Amino acid sequence: MFESAELGHKVSKGKYKKLVPALRADLLDAQIELFKHGKFPVVLLISGQDGAGKGETINVLYEWMDARFISTIAFSQPSDEERSRPAMWRFWRSLPPKGRIGIFAGSWYSDPIGQRLAGSMSKIELDAQIDRINRFETMLINEGALVLKFWFHLTYEGQKQRLKELESNPRTAWRVTKWNWDRLKTYDKLQKVSGHMLRMTSKAAAPWIIVEGTDDRYRYLTVGQTLLDAIRAKLAAVKNTVAVESAPMLPQPSTINLRSVLSALDLTQSLAERSYEKQLAQWQARLAELARDPRFKGRSVVCAFEGADAAGKGGAIRRISAALDARQYQIIPVAAPTEEESMQPYLWRFWRHIPSLGRFTIFDRTWYGRVLVERVEGFCTQADWSRAYGEINDFEHELSEAGVIVVKFWLQVSQAEQLRRFKEREKIAFKRFKITAEDWRNRKKWDAYQQAVCDMIDRTSTGEAPWTLIEANDKNFARVKILRTLCKRIELELDGGLKEI
């Protein structure tokens, strides 16, 4: 895989001086057009062997382009904050917005390669990480990102010589440590591990570009020209893209009795006030105990609330938060994306609110908006919401693997009960803000939303993150069922039961 990067590529000083001015001008023009149109971000990964010129190349890119529209994110060992969240969290929140270039010095490839070299990750585990990386990059590309991945390669002798040169120069000697020399001893193993990683993650939409790192001028020109060509091609593709109308429904299998997971719910279930007050206090007390359990310090909880309009999500959330220390949770109400959020992948605004260990995050509406409101209202294409099921499952799998307990609730009410609550809200002064013209408009699309919900449950209720359907015509019954379910899930996870199933 590295043969072409061992041919001794070189660029003369004269040729370099001749080519650079035009390349710099073209890069600036492309960068300005990228920012002006703001249609996609550029995710630039700079990886490779020690001493292969990664830092120098990044510095040259800053010199050649407008630094205001570039951000460089350097990753080393995870911080305490990062270790308390999923491994991908620090990369998720660092993605560049549309119209800008984000340079990753170190990336989601670094830890798997390092762990495999150290022997702390098996080949099977490495391949599982590779599969996750491929799905993550596919999601970025489907969200419109231009992903460019450079691997700077050196032969063993070339790397040894580069380290000696850096070490002998007083201005760069600090960059070479005993760790670098020790790492050189694992050269052959690194070639094997990185070669496998690069082969398995070099896809048509995001191929690895292997660059010989021996000659600085060759490396700078290769990276600069490749970046320019890729931005230009992406800009041209975006301009020529014809908007595709969103199809509101997927083809559904025919049914005889028209039953669904929602229509099968018994919405007549209720709980008398006295029994409700007793059970509410019981389960709130149990939740408070679980939140203080020493074992919970190594876990966290994400509660995802979805439901029909006026189904009682807010009231249920308040009964959960009443049992918790205010310092231990945050509630994230989700509305239409802000300008900042719309410049990122649709999951980004949820990624950044993932709780640290020992904490709860409660989402009032969630990432499922992509397969519900965006689907039904035509805010995205069928291709977008169809692929979102898999992307959401991947996201929740990442959370679960990191020790996050994902608990998802759908609150269901009948059309008649929803109408009663809508009218009640209009009459009560302090509830009027809850009812809008949009709520009435959504009600007219009841059947379309119900079908979207059934598809959502069918495609995203997994063993790690199952949906719990809440019969919510009676608020007392719904609130107790939610609290009981949450407590039981936390208990099961703390006891390790779910992992053994």
Automatic annotation (TrEMBL):
InterPro entries: P-loop_NTPase (IPR027417), PolyP_AMP_Tfrase (IPR022489), PPK2-related (IPR022488). Residues 11-234, 272-492 form the Polyphosphate kinase-2-related domain. SUPFAM superfamilies: P-loop containing nucleoside triphosphate hydrolases (SSF52540). It comes from the Bacteria. Pfam families: PPK2. It comes from Undibacterium seohonense. The gene is pap. This is Polyphosphate:AMP phosphotransferase. Transmembrane segments: none annotated.
